[in-house]
Amino acid sequence: MGTALDIKIKRANKVYHAGEVLSGVVVISSKDSVQHQGVSLTMEGTVNLQLSAKSVGVFEAFYNSVKPIQIINSTIEMVKPGKFPSGKTEIPFEFPLHVKGNKVLYETYHGVFVNIQYTLRCDMRRSLLAKDLTKTCEFIVHSTPQKGKMTPSPVDFTITPETLQNVKERALLPKFLIRGHLNSTNCVITQPLTGELVVESSEAAIRSVELQLVRVETCGCAEGYARDATEIQNIQIADGDVCRGLSVPIYMVFPRLFTCPTLETTNFKVEFEVNIVVLLHPDHLITENFPLKLCRT
Amino acid sequence: MAPAEVVTWAVLSQRLPLISMASAENEACAVQSIACPSQAWRLQTVRLDSAGRVEGPRTSGHVTGKMAVFPWHSRNRNYKAEFASCRLEAVPLEFGDYHPLKPITVTESKTKKVTRKGSTSSTSSSSSSSMVDPLSSVLDGTDPLSMFAATADPAALAAATDSSRKKRDRDDNSVVGSDFEPWANKRGEILARYTTTEKLSINLFMGSEKGRAGTAAFAMSEKVRTRLEELDDFEEGSQKELLNLTQQDYVNRIEELNQSLKDAWASDQKVKALKIVIQCSKLLSDTSVIQFYPSKFVLITDILDTFGKYLSYEMCLFCQELGDHFSPENANDTAKETCLNWFFKIASIRELIPRFYVEASILKCNKFLSKTGISECLPRLTCMIRGIGDPLVSVYARAYLCRVARLTWGSVSCSALLLNSVMSAFRAEFIATRSMDFIGMIKECDESGFPKHLLFRSLGLNLALADPPESDRLQILNEAWKVITKLKNPQDYINCAEVWVEYTCKHFTKREVNTVLADVIKHMTPDRAFEDSYPQLQLIIKKVIAYFHDFSVLFSVEKFLPFLDMFQKESVRVEVCKCIMEAFIKHQQEPTKDPVILNALLHVCKTMHDSVNALTLEDEKRMLSYLINGFIKMVSFGRDFEQQLSFYVESRSMFCNLEPVLVQLIHACVAYCFITIPSLTGIFTRLNLYLHSGQVALANQCLSQADAFFKAAISLIPEVPKMINIEGKMRPSESFLLEFLCNFFSTLLIVPDHPEHGVLFLVRELLNVIQDYTWEDNSDEKIRIYTCVLHLLSAMSQETYLYHIDKVDSNDSLYGGDSKFLAENNKLCETVMAQILEHLKTLAKDEALKRQSSLGLSFFNSILAHGDLRNNKLNQLSVNLWHLAQRHGCADTRTMVKTLEYIKKRSKQPGMTHLTELALRLPLQTRT
């Protein structure tokens, strides 16, 4: 192995907030001394938007990707052209996280049609004979905690054949009564979604009860907007025909990166919903939808 | 001889403890044992010499047979027929076979069996102890409950304990101590026990990972199949379904998975490791071969354990520099981050069962995140199990959580419910050694939904089974009672107190027990709260009794009797009394005269006795009698017989409704008589009292006591002086003696022989005494007595005796007309006859012709009445005697005439025709 380039960010969780200083070291390790034309470090933050095939058609989607929105982009020259001695060389760096103008440092989010990502890229330029070395490293931005206390908004729900919509033959449905509540639909992203679900009665055997976390991404542009809901994760909370009348806990941890505080901008929106999915024997699927509002405190 | 009779003997001859008081006075009656009379019979035949004389220290040379020996032949008597012929004719009533009130007959064999059982029981003659319980046969291990217990679900067993194992799992026991049964033991047991011959299948779905987890390991026996599957792997993850596995195959495969987990971890493929764990946990949702499930659970949780251990080891590595006493605050950021990563990853496991198991397996790692991590996580995981629909799977999930959590529970401030579960599921020893910790936890715990008094009750139950460290004991009691005594609701209070009484009794003295009892009384008396708590109060009494075997201590517990007063419902009161008496009979070793015990127990017995009424069942009466008798037997005032008797008198007035108790008292009084009689001065008073007491004893089936009385009477006879003072005048005693002896003989007829003393031993002894007694020179009393003896012996040789005592088997039924017995009897008769004849001869010499005539006639009458005159020799003897009576003209002609008339009259009766011939040979001497 020749020369290796690495970026080590000081914080183990790589999480930073606006206004903080991102610090770390660039590590160059090599058996022999390394000639180079300078080492630079670039910090970049972009929002990548993509139109879904469903919304605009396959080809359009392929070509008409919305232009990425740049949030932050700055480069510093770390080392002037020269030579690194053999062994390991660590070069510390510090990057203040400041945005220009009225731009907002959105929280890191990995979605399907919306991606908000922050990277550090280290480039070592070298002579014509040797290839340039590049190392990229993602760091995570958390939006600054919102001020003021979040007010919980509990929701009680009752699901019976009568409460359902989109039913073809209501008469064919087995009778059931499922009650429950979510402790709050205003959720702190670091805290799990909690609640309870009670199968009070059900003619048909329960196969499964699941919590489906859904992201709703909206990409807007002058011509209109595309809104797409996709599943982030599905967590089973009951497996098999559970005891009647005994509350089953609703509990779901919001996955990191794949969720962020509910975001609404002029160009795009990221929202979240949870579906409570009840599967009955032999083949009934009942879904109850709850929009969530995520925030960071 | 029928065995049943032998048994009867044995039962009747059981020694009563009270008679042992008398043993100092008379050794003879002390030893009694069960033996077959026929054995004694053989011994006796050896002891008789050829002339039929009784061998003994005395020389009985004058009892010889110089004269022609007349063999005695008793006339066979049919007393019933004779009696019948003397009274109005009895018309027999015809009873039909069927009668609705006729008792159900018990088969003979059964009865015998029961009796025999009774005979082997040692001192007590109560029949209640030998009851055959018809229900017991039903309960020979075939009841559904015990069958169910035999095949009980092992989930319960996983929590249950087995103290036999001593192996320790060092790894896990650092927290819980060495008295905790290690999982390793349980594990082996489960694997050995739950096996199957059915085919099993493994279905593994390795997610989207392209690497074929564990493929190399799998490839051994199903290479081709695996290869084919490998082709599919390119699509979406690797799915493997292994069908038709034998149990061994299955075990091997799981072991391979375990190995590939280790390999994956070692090669830093942590995600793959996690996937293996997830897939394995998934197998636990399959209950298709249910009898193998426990073993499957063990195998798969092994893998989970491995995973959990690896992960927490990894966490520890990050925190190494912090030593063991890390806290989440100073935990390394990297460790925290890695841990968080794992938790996020695991939290997103789609399916419930694998998510539960994996979360549970890394429960320990929660401590890296926050101090309260584990205590927050445990209840959540517990609730999570509710989502598992299959009851078997959910119970096992719970078992796993318990197993994982037990390592950490100590640091958790538990909910009351959890604490209670811990106390009821864990071994008592384990709980007991940590009693103080538990008390601390109970005090602190959250009481919502689960009252604390139930926790104290659970703790008390444990302490009843196992002992806490000695140094803690008093403090434990104080702490616990402090809480218990504050309980307002009497029901709550008594439920708790009842349990703690045992602990108090076990480790403390009567002082503490008294305090506790006083407290119970104080709580239960207001508003008659005790009325609703009789079962608990009864249990308290039972426990106190169980630990205080010394009744003098028990009754000196001041509050014990006041405590008994709380039992105001009669049935309960009697039950409690019974318990006390049972304990007394069981534990009281020495006879007692302690007034405290006597007073208390008399009170207790009186309560029992007073409960008897017309509706009381026989069984119940028998039981009560048994208990009261047990008490009476244990009361002894030593040499203070007066007090003993007054005790009996008092008892008699108290317990007059229970016949067995009265019998017992009679036994006791009989013993008293035996002791008291020798202190009297009047010789005949003594003799008659001995005889009467003997008769009373006999009437109450106290055979050995009766024997003792009769022996005492016999040995007293030689002391009878020739002259006695009657109302200031000196008179010859012989007539009194004769009267007494005749009376005595009548009694002796029905006294059964003692199995060890040989045939007719009382009669023999009496004869010897009569022989040796110094009679008046010119008296025929001795011969008159001999004549009476002859009557006795004749009566004794009958097949059925003239009279009997109810429930006492006399010699007729004992020997059943055995020929040897009859021969012995006849030999005695001959000896006696020889004596009589000898004497008649001497009278001729002494010119005492009048006496000779009178004696001769008397003898003749005896032969006529009791002898079988069809026997030629006897016939000849009677003729000779007739002549002797008339020889010297001393006979009273009118008597002779009347006698002859009588003979003639008799000869007309059926079977008496031979008397006609005899009458012809008896001339009447005309007066010259």
TrEMBL record, chain A:
Location, primary (coarse class): other
UniProt keyword terms in alphabetical order: Endosome
Subcellular location(s) of the protein: Endosome
Domain of life the protein comes from: Eukaryota
One Pfam family it belongs to: Vps26
GO biological process: intracellular protein transport
Matching InterPro entries: Arrestin-like_C, Ig_E-set, Vps26-related
Any single Gene Ontology cellular-component annotation: endosome
Membrane-traversing stretches: none
Subunit structure comment from the entry: Component of the commander complex that is essential for endosomal recycling of transmembrane cargos; the commander complex is composed of the CCC subcomplex and the retriever subcomplex. Component of the heterotrimeric retriever complex consisting of VPS26C, VPS29 and VPS35L; within the complex interacts with VPS35L. Interacts with SNX17 (via C-terminus); the interaction is direct and associates SNX17 with the retriever complex. Interacts with SNX31; the interaction is direct.
Family: Belongs to the VPS26 family.
Functional summary from the UniProt entry: Component of the commander complex that is essential for endosomal recycling of transmembrane cargos; the commander complex is composed of the CCC subcomplex and the retriever subcomplex. Component of the retriever complex, which is a heterotrimeric complex related to retromer cargo-selective complex (CSC) and essential for retromer-independent retrieval and recycling of numerous cargos such as integrin alpha-5/beta-1 (ITGA5:ITGB1). The recruitment of the retriever complex to the endosomal membrane involves CCC and WASH complexes.
Listed name of the protein: Vacuolar protein sorting-associated protein 26C
Species for this entry: Saimiri boliviensis boliviensis (Bolivian squirrel monkey)
Lineage: Eukaryota, Metazoa, Chordata, Craniata, Vertebrata
Automatic annotation (TrEMBL), chain B:
InterPro entries: VPS35L
Ranges annotated as biased composition (Low complexity): 117-130
Keywords: Endosome, Protein transport, Transport
Region (Disordered) location: 109-136, 158-179
Compartments, record wording: Endosome
Highest taxon listed in the record's lineage: Eukaryota
UniProt record, GO biological process: endocytic recycling; protein transport
GO annotation, cellular component aspect: endosome
Family of the protein in this entry: Belongs to the VPS35L family.
PANTHER family given in the database record: ESOPHAGEAL CANCER ASSOCIATED PROTEIN (PTHR13673), VPS35 ENDOSOMAL PROTEIN-SORTING FACTOR-LIKE (PTHR13673:SF0)
Protein name: VPS35 endosomal protein-sorting factor-like
Organism, as annotated: Saimiri boliviensis boliviensis
